[in-house]
Input
Amino acid sequence: IVAEAESAAAGKLAAAERQAAETLAASRRRVREVEDALAAEREREEHLLSQMRQAREALAQHLTATRSGLEQVLTQVSGDERVRTLIGGQAGEVVEGEPVE
Output
């Protein structure tokens, strides 16, 4: 009876050790999968951040060019005698009134 019990216990112990080894291997595989997915997500995030930086830079350049262009147009218009004549103002004078459509 003792020998049978020892044999059964040894079998159960071996089965438990196999199950533990399989569980450990499955856990390690899952950790690698999660790490790979996380690395891919980090790479995607870095790519998106780079695109956002490029878009921000392009927008800043566009806004600077637009501002510069508007300032240039306003300077030209304010110095144009024909425009002042049309709105009835003098050079350097601020004219208030309804906007022209």
In short: The helical segments are 2-78, 81-87. DSSP finds two helices and no strands in the chain. The longest helix spans residues 2-78. The mean pLDDT is 86.
